[in-house]
Structure formats: C-alpha cells, structure tokens
C-alpha cells in the first residue's frame, strides 16, 4: 500500500484527475474528527473595537489535511452569543473574502448591523489560514516576480510564466509554516468543518462574502449535509471557472461605463464634457498599447502604462461620494492623452506588481485561477474583446497565477446540488450580481436579491434592504420571491 508521500509524488506526474481523487479522500470526516479532539476555551476578547460580550477562543487544525497528525496551525475564533438564548437556533459562521481578510475584523465592523440575527444565533467569525499566512509569510514573498503585462505572443507568455514560477518556488522554499502549498479552498472548507465540530453544532448557517464564495462552494462540495442555510453576498462562482466569471461581468462593466459617459455628457465639471468620452477612452488605450506612457509613482517608482494597464485598472464603476471618483477618472484620462499618466500611475503600477507577488498569489492560485496555456489566454482574450470593446483583454489575476508550480488542488468542476438547501444571494447590479446569481442558479430553489446601485459585500456595507432579506432567510429559512430588487441606499 502506498504512503501519502508516494501518492503525492505519483499524483504530480499523473495530472488533475488524480489530484481531485486525493482531495476527495483527504476530505473524509474521520480525518477532520481526528484533528479536533478538545473543545476550545472561550474567554472575553481583548482589543480595540471589540463588541460587548464578544468571546474569543482558538483551535488547531492540520497544515495539510491529508496528514492530520502532522504540523498544526492555530485559527483564532470570535463569538457573539445569541442575545435571546431561550430562542437560540444555532450558530452563523462568517466566511471572509480576500482571500486573506480576517473574519473577526468583519464581525467587529458589522456587529451593529447584525443585531437582528444576533438575537437567535451565536455569530461566529474566524481568522482563516490565508490570514495566518498573510501575517507570517516571509517578507521575500511580497516581492513581485515581475510587473504584469499582457503577453502578445507565445514567447512573451513563456517568459512571464517562467518569471512567476521562479519567484513562486522561491517563496515556497522560504516558507517555514508549510502553508504555501495548502491554502486552497478545500483546505479552508475543512477548517470550517473543524470549527463546526468545535462549536458542537450538527449543522451551521453561513454568511459568505466576495472570495468567501470559493470556500463556501468547497464546503458545499465536501459537507452538504452540514449546511442549514447559506447566504452569499457578492460572491465569486469558482465552480464555473474564473474565465466564465470575468466574461459574465464584462457586459456589466460596459453598462456602467455608459452610465459614466452619460453622466459626463450632462456634467460640465467632467473634464471630458462636450466630447465623446467613450471615443476618447478608446483612442487613449489604443495609443498606449502602441506607445506606452512613461510614469513615475511615488510608491512604486518608474514604469510604463500600456492600454492593457489602463483597461485593467483605470476605471472604477462606483462613482463615489458626489461622483468624486468619476471626476478624478475623467481628469486622469484628459491628462493621459496629453502624455501625463500621473492619475493612473499608483493604481496601475501598484496592481501590476501586487498581483505578481507570490505571497498574495499563494492564497488563490490553487483554486485554479491561472491560465493553463497561451492558447487558453488567446481564447479568453478574443471572447473578452468581443464582449467588451472598452475593457476586454487578458485578466490580471489569471496572469499572476500563470506559472503556478504546484498541482491545482481545487479545480473548477460541477457542484452536485443534492442534499443542499436553497441558498440566498445578494449582489449589486453594477457589479457582482452576475457572479452571485450564477452561483445560486446552481442550487434549486435559490434566489438572488438584486441591489440596484454600486456596492460590494452589501451586508458588511450596512445596506438595510439586503440585510432585511438575509435576516429573514437565516432566521426563518424563508426566501424572497425570485426577481426581488432592493433600491440603492
């Protein structure tokens, strides 16, 4: 009989199907039970911003769930006990986004908006393994392997992949925690089930936001019988694959850009007022692809802005207070067409480097975020440019994960809905509704509430209408009617 290490070596050479099988075997309940023998000790939480009555604890989980007796990491927990204990239903576990966000910080920030569900539920948050990694990773792991660019041929693609593989391997070699190879969302989902067991709950209710949808889907894959309710707030649908999710949101971005150009045409303060703002933007990005704009960022130094940089990082769909972001964008476009790209320098150069930092990528690449080949990149780019003339191109997150040196632990693949309760989703029609609706659409009987305004992670943003529907769902398992919409707040 092969040992775990032998199976792992063999898996590296036999491809993705073997990896899926090993992942499924590693997720069996006995391994999870073996890792969680002692109940956590709860104590009063200390620290700034802590809500009254909040209790804290910690559990240990394996770094590698395939080796439950191997090295461990500590996951911090926080709990706000139900304020009406006689009517208590159970626990709601928050699944933070990021990846790398700290769910305990989310609970502190959103506690005032969680008063109603907090009457009948213990509200539980945790610090996921991605945050543990973020706080402990070697400093060298935040040094980018390159500054991302859009490859224009097989040679450039291979050069980018080689540069990323080199820096990713160097980060793995410097890692003393062992977490580099084990931050996939299947591992995070097993952590979540260890928390469920530590809480003494047979089933949990969940609130997931943003990237938290990826471990939410992984939990639904591994432990469908443990889910009482699942609220998804602006969550990505990794099940359908990252390219699909990007292509779904590009038409939304085009519609929001039309909102911007319409606003600009009606607003004398807009720097492009009286002009065809869309035509100006298109010419700027085409010209920058032919002749990149030299810039200097006070934080990131010198660089050059191509049209790809501008399309990827330049436009923000949320106009901001008093349309301040759109005013700044229009001014930056006006100056950039004259050769001054200062208005885009920090955000473009910063993102192009941060998304090439191995420490950040290690939290997400194992969920199959990268391009597997230049042919895949080309296919995606053709689709994206057809859908979105203003913003289509290679996806920066997938470019960052190009060259991932390990087997993809959590590949995109269909999710069986059998045994799952109906889910409730909520998302902004200006952005993430398309993601969330594609997720809930996989689960029969589910509903997604459309928030008709800009925003992301609506519950954490204090949006009252989505909060009301989420509270009713979590408490009574009652869903709103399909097609329900919330007005902008």
CATH homologous superfamily annotation of the largest domain: Alpha/Beta hydrolase fold, catalytic domain
Helical percentage: 40-55%
Which CATH class of the largest domain applies here? Answer: Alpha Beta
The CATH architecture of the largest domain comes to 3-Layer(aba) Sandwich
Keywords: Signal
InterPro entries: AB_hydrolase_1, AB_hydrolase_fold, Pept_S33_TAP-like_C
Domain AB hydrolase-1: 183-279
Protein name: Pimeloyl-ACP methyl ester carboxylesterase
Would you give an account of this structure?
This protein has 489 residues and is α/β, with parallel strands linked by helices. The protein folds into two domains: 12-136 and 177-240 and 413-487, Rossmann fold (3-Layer(aba) Sandwich), CATH 3.40.50; 142-175 and 249-401, no CATH class. 43% of the residues lie in helices and 14% in strands. It is built from 19 helices and twelve strands. It has helices at residues 4-14, 16-26, 29-35, 103-110, 117-120, 129-136, 154-174, 185-199, 213-222, 242-265, 277-290, 307-313, 324-336, 342-354, 358-361, 374-387, 396-401, 433-440, 464-476, and strands spanning 43-44, 55-62, 72-80, 90-95, 121-126, 204-209, 227-233, 293-297, 301-305, 424-428, 447-452, 485-487. It has a ten-stranded mixed beta sheet, sandwiched between helices. A two-stranded antiparallel ribbon has the order 8-9. Strand 10, helix 18 and strand 11 form a beta-alpha-beta unit. Helix 8 (185-199) packs across helix 9. The longest helix has 24 residues, at 242-265. The chain is globular, with a radius of gyration of 23 Å. The protein starts with a helix and ends with a strand. Residues 1-37 have low confidence and may be disordered. This is Pimeloyl-ACP methyl ester carboxylesterase. Residues 183-279 form the AB hydrolase-1 domain. Residues 399-486 form the Peptidase S33 tripeptidyl aminopeptidase-like C-terminal domain.
């Amino acid at each position: 009989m092969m040992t775990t290490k032998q199976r792992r070596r063999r898996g590296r050479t036999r491809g993705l199907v073997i990896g899926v099988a090993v992942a499924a075997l590693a997720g069996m309940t006995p391994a999870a039970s073996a890792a969680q023998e002692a109940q956590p000790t709860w104590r009063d939480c200390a620290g700034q911003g802590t809500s009254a009555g909040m209790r804290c604890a910690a559990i240990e989980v394996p770094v590698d769930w395939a080796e439950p007796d191997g090295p461990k990491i500590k996951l911090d927990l926080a709990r706000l006990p139900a304020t009406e204990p006689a009517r208590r239903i159970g626990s709601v576990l928050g699944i933070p986004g990021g990846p790398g966000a700290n769910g305990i910080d989310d609970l502190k920030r959103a506690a005032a908006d969680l008063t109603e569900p907090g009457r009948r539920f213990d509200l539980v948050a945790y610090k996921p393994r991605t945050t543990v990694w973020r706080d402990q990773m070697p400093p060298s792991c935040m040094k980018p392997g390159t500054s991302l660019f859009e490859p224009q041929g097989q040679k450039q693609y291979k050069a980018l992949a080689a540069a990323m593989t080199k820096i990713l391997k160097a980060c793995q070699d410097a890692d003393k925690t062992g977490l580099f190879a084990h931050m996939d969302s299947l591992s995070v989902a097993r952590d979540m089930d260890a928390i469920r067991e530590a809480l003494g709950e047979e089933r949990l209710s969940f609130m997931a936001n943003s990237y938290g949808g990826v471990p939410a889907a992984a939990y639904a894959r591994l432990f469908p019988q443990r889910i009482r309710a699942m609220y998804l707030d602006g969550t990505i649908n990794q099940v359908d694959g990252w390219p699909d999710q990007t292509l779904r949101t590009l038409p939304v971005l085009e519609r929001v850009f039309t909102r911007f150009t319409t606003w600009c045409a009606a607003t004398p303060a807009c720097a492009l007022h009286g002009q065809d703002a869309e035509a100006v933007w298109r010419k700027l990005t085409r010209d920058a692809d032919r002749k990149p704009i030299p810039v200097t960022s006070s934080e990131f130094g010198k660089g050059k802005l191509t049209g790809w940089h501008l399309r990827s990082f330049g436009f923000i769909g949320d106009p901001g207070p008093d349309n301040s972001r759109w005013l700044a964008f229009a001014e930056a476009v006006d100056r950039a067409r004259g050769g001054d790209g200062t208005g885009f320098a920090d955000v473009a150069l910063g993102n192009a480097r941060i998304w090439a930092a191995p420490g950040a990528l290690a939290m997400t690449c194992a969920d199959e975020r990268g391009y597997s080949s230049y042919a895949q990149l080309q296919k995606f780019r053709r689709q994206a440019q057809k859908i979105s003339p203003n913003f289509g191109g290679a996806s920066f997150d997938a470019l960052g994960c190009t060259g991932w040196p390990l087997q993809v632990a959590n590949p995109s693949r269909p999710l069986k809905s059998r045994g799952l309760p109906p889910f409730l989703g909520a998302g902004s029609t200006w952005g993430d509704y398309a993601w969330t609706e594609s997720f809930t659409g996989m689960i029969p009987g589910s509903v997604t509430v459309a928030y008709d305004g800009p925003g992301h992670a609506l519950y954490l943003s204090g949006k009252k209408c989505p909060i009301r529907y989420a509270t009713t769902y979590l408490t009574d398992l009652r869903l709103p009617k399909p097609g329900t919409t919330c007005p902008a707040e």
